[in-house]
Amino acid sequence: MNYTRFINGLSAARKPSPIREMTKLLTQGSPDLVFLASGVPNPSMFPFQGASVTLRDGSTIQLEGKTINDALQYGPTQGYGPLLAQLKEMQQKLHSPPCWTNTEVLITNGSQDGLCKAFEMMMNLNDHVIVQEPVYAGTLAILNPYKPQYVPVQCDANGLIPEELRRSLESKWKSEDTQSSKSDVPKVLYVNPAGANPTGVSIPLSRRQEIYQIAKDFDLIIFEDDPYYFLQFDKERTPSFLSLDTDGRVIRFDSLSKVLSSGIRLGYVTGPRELVEPITYHMQVSVLHASSLSQVLVSELLKQWGQEGFLGHVDRVQKFYSQQREIMLKAAETHLTGLAEWNIPQGGMFLWIKCLEVSDTRPMIMDRALKKDVILLPGREFMTDPSQPCPYMRASFSLASPENIDRGFRNLAQLIREEIELTKKV
Known about the structure:
Blueprint: H1 9-13, H2 18-26, E1 51-54, E2 60-63, H3 66-72, H4 81-95, E3 103-108, H5 111-122, E4 128-133, H6 137-143, E5 149-156, E6 159-160, H7 162-170, E7 188-191, H8 205-217, E8 221-225, H9 241-244, E9 250-255, E10 267-272, H10 273-284, H11 292-336, E11 340-342, E12 350-355, H12 361-368, E13 377-378, E14 392-396, H13 402-425
Helix pairs in contact: 3-11, 4-11, 5-6, 5-10, 11-13
């Protein structure tokens, strides 16, 4: 592939930071290397001697000696070497990317950091950008300052609809338009494929294959934002877009927030070297690298668990959220039947609820929900045009106890009934 059209002028102008490149050499040199190149602090001046972390099974992870020094020191922008190797091995095992020889992995400060920098690499003011709708509100927050011309593609109970995607593209462009530097044909298709935020839907394999073919036809880069990959509720995880990528047109964003810890702020970007490299250069001049302490801690955990241990852990996490989903579905059936409708989430942490007699949930939630001791997110926040009324709202089943989920939905039902009565009076 020719990636020229996908990298904007600002990103193309970035060059490697010489200091950051030298820091990378520090990890590659022999034990006899005398390193006089950069201002790396002397670890003997750090006040921390060691650290011990206790796991829920009672075992511990000890950080001491070279390991604690690595955890407290500058590191390569691409990531802590041992963790990078572990994540690369995991990506090969889980996704078997067809273009692996030209694929890079980059560790970021959470997956959203990588996603934000990837959009900044590609977007110019007023560019067209294709998104599924409803779409994760954090992605809209990244994109809105570019004043983009959104091409929203509707979703149903099986996620983004391929026919709608093709229709939206063919109504404005031809596939050959991608050959013209003056064309305004979109460059990016953003998709949240498994347990999507906010809908909880997952795109089946047959649709993913259709979507990938459309991306080929219109020379699109697919941003596969997949933080809920490990929280799919079917027995078998659906193959990723990365696993279908024969061209090198998928950038995948993974997160450890949902399965290990959100506070450690670790995610990783996987994609073609030509597109991951500019994101790396951006990191070199912004955050330098993801937290060394977080990276070393996770690497030691993966070393202790092994891949099978990690996958066993995520299976337990998936089972927990699946049980939480069932609790919320039962509460919805008990309290919201006749007031609202919903699809069964196929993954993730959310239930997407449509009020049957409330045309816009935002005033109801923002102005009156707190008085009923319940709060959700109004559907408007997930739409490309938030000025339009929206009857949807998002409820999360990740944190609340079974008792509070039931109480919250009972309160929500009262709120909806009162809103209906209020609307009738108006």
